[in-house]
Amino acid sequence: MSMDVTFLGTGAAYPSPTRGASAVVLRCEGECWLFDCGEGTQTQLMKSQLKAGRITKIFITHLHGDHFFGLPGLLCTISLQSGSMVSKQPIEIYGPVGLRDFIWRTMELSHTELVFHYVVHELVPTADQCPAEELKEFAHVNRADSPPKEEQGRTILLDSEENSYLLFDDEQFVVKAFRLFHRIPSFGFSVVEKKRPGKLNAQKLKDLGKCFFCFLFFPPFSSIGLLLTEAIRSVIVRPGVVAHACNPSTLGGRGGRIT
C-alpha cells in the first residue's frame, strides 16, 4: 500500500508567512487523515497537491489554539466543496474531551450548517493528565443538544493493560492514542498498517515453470492458487514432486508504522 506524509505546518504558537501552525496529512489509498489543524491549515492545503474533500479522519493532539483553531474553518470549506453530496461518509474527528463542545459552540454561534455529517470521538484523560475539577469544565455539553449534522461519537477510555486508547481496528490499520504530558491533556497517535499478502509475479511464475531446476512444469496458471496462500509453504503435487511457494510471489510482509 502506498502511504505518504505531508507536513503542512510545523510551527509553534502561531503561523508565520513561511511556516504554518501544526498540521500533518497522512495519505493512503485515496484518503487523507489530518493530524492537528492549526490556524491557516486550509491555506497550506491549497498550496499543496492535497484536496480538503479527501479528508476522512481528523486527529487533534490537544486543545491549544495552534493545534486546532483551524478546524472550524476547514470543516466549513469542506462543506462548501461538497455541494449537495449528502451521501459523503461522516468525517470522524478524534481528540481530547472538550473538542466536541468547541465544534458545537462554534457552529452554533456562527449559524453554520454543514452539508455533511461528522462524528466526534473524545478521549478521556487520566487523573495525572487532568484534575477531575478541570475535566468537569470541559465536558458540560448536554448530548441532547447535538447539532443536526453531528452523529453520536464514542467516549474512549484508557485501556490500562495496553496503556493506550484504541481508536479503531479495521482490515488495514490499527490506530491508537497514547498519553502525553503537557500543560493540558495531550495525546500522541500511532498508525500501524497490518501485514498484507504479497502479489504474485505471473511472469516469474511462467519462467520458473519452464526452468529445469524447478523439477516441475506448471501448465499455464493451473496451480497459481497454491502459491497465493500465505499459510502454504509447499504442496505435494504427486509422490516425489513438491511445489515450493517461494520465489514467484513478491514480499507482502510487514505493514508500515507511523507515530
TrEMBL record:
UniProt-listed InterPro entries: RibonucZ/Hydroxyglut_hydro (IPR036866), RNase_Z/BN (IPR013471)
Cofactor: Zn(2+)
Entry keyword annotation includes DNA-binding: no
GO molecular function: 3'-tRNA processing endoribonuclease activity; metal ion binding
EC numbers, comma separated: 3.1.26.11
Record's keyword terms, sorted: Cytoplasm, Endonuclease, Hydrolase, Metal-binding, Nuclease, Nucleus, tRNA processing, Zinc
SUPFAM superfamilies: Metallo-hydrolase/oxidoreductase (SSF56281)
First-level EC class: hydrolase
GO terms for cellular component: cytosol; nucleus
Location of the protein in the cell: Cytoplasm, Cytosol; Nucleus
Keyword flag Signal: no
Catalyses which reaction(s): Endonucleolytic cleavage of RNA, removing extra 3' nucleotides from tRNA precursor, generating 3' termini of tRNAs. A 3'-hydroxy group is left at the tRNA terminus and a 5'-phosphoryl group is left at the trailer molecule
Highest taxon of source: Eukaryota
Cross-referenced Gene3D superfamilies: Ribonuclease Z/Hydroxyacylglutathione hydrolase-like
Family: Belongs to the RNase Z family.
Function comment: Zinc phosphodiesterase, which displays some tRNA 3'-processing endonuclease activity. Specifically involved in tRNA repair: acts downstream of the ribosome-associated quality control (RQC) pathway by removing a 2',3'-cyclic phosphate from tRNAs following cleavage by ANKZF1. tRNAs are then processed by TRNT1.
Quaternary data: Homodimer.
Protein name: Zinc phosphodiesterase ELAC protein 1
Lineage: Eukaryota, Metazoa, Chordata, Craniata, Vertebrata
